[in-house]
Design goal:
285 residues, alpha/beta, five-stranded mixed sheet, two-stranded antiparallel ribbon, 10 helices, 33% helix, globular
Length: 285
């Protein structure tokens, strides 16, 4: 019986492996996606359309993100990021842990290489309009520490007013995508990705299945969210002395049954601009 169960599990894993499009771009030997960091980012940041439809074309990246991926921009010195955080009255627990600590690593010893962007896709307002206060503190979903207090992952939730809750620090290994669970396998995937959830509600699109959550706000995210996402990206990258490759959840899950469709309406140009602005401010110290 045990042999039969093992064969069934192997078959199911093989089916998921075969469905995944991202796994075909991944080198198990090198424990990373194939190609240069720039090529990996162009793949992982493909435009995500409603219902999880991923563009067939690689992303046209903003120039500054390209410069990060080709290492034309230096990682900030530790003392500069420390002075910047102090100027903003931010402690290490506001940025996922000490920038002196290692980032998460997998069972094979590889530290995290990827910074994966998600949206929470909740609550679903169904046929109702989005409230006009979703970008205000009065909307309870923005009280992320209360809303997500029982979660043991992902690494961070970023509310629409910029509040952040860290279920775990960046040093902790965590899996959050079907790609990691069903295609890549635990020994490699767990610890290779940093996962950030951006609060975003949804509502239903007429003419589609009941209670669908296809429609997202447009613009999808707030300036506060992009600024905090940029801060987390910089602080995570400092810990490995290398710019992490950013990517979207939906691209990882592409091809896998019930794969996710997030993030929706993410503005890569805005994210890039916020990283650039923040790095300029850090370099002033």
């Amino acid at each position: 019986m045990k042999t039969i169960i093992n064969l069934v599990l192997i078959t199911l894993c093989s089916m998921s492996f075969g469905q995944s499009k991202a796994i075909k771009k991944f080198s198990l030997e090198d424990q990373q996606f194939i190609g240069t960091k720039l090529e990996q980012a162009q793949y992982l940041l493909k435009k995500v359309k409603p219902m999880g439809i991923v563009s067939k074309q690689d992303a046209m990246l903003p120039q500054f993100i390209e410069s990060l991926m080709t290492d034309e921009v230096a990682i900030p010195a530790i003392f500069k990021i420390n002075m910047y955080l102090e100027s903003k009255n931010l402690e290490y627990d506001h940025v996922g842990g000490s920038v002196l600590d290692d980032l998460s690593h997998n069972a094979k010893g590889s530290q995290a290489k990827y910074f994966i962007i998600h949206d929470t896709s909740t609550p679903n307002f169904l046929k109702r309009d989005f409230p006009d206060y979703i970008n205000e503190d009065s909307w309870k979903q923005n009280n992320v520490e209360v809303r997500w207090k029982h979660r043991k992952g992902p690494h961070a939730f970023v509310g629409r007013t910029g509040k952040i809750f860290f279920p775990i620090e960046f040093s902790s290994a965590y899996r959050a995508t079907k790609f990691e669970f069903k295609a890549l396998g635990k020994s490699i995937s767990r610890g290779l990705f940093i996962h950030i959830e951006l609060v975003q509600p949804r509502k239903s699109k007429s003419g589609k299945w009941r209670d669908n959550d296809i429609i997202a706000p447009d613009p999808g995210f707030t300036t506060d969210q992009y600024q905090k996402l940029a801060l987390l990206y910089i602080c995570a990258s400092i810990r490995v002395k290398n710019w992490l490759v950013p990517g979207y959840h939906a691209v990882l899950d592409q091809g896998i049954k019930n794969g996710h469709d997030d993030p929706q309406n993410f503005d890569l140009e805005t994210f890039s601009a916020e990283i650039k602005t923040m790095l300029s401010a850090i370099e002033e110290y």
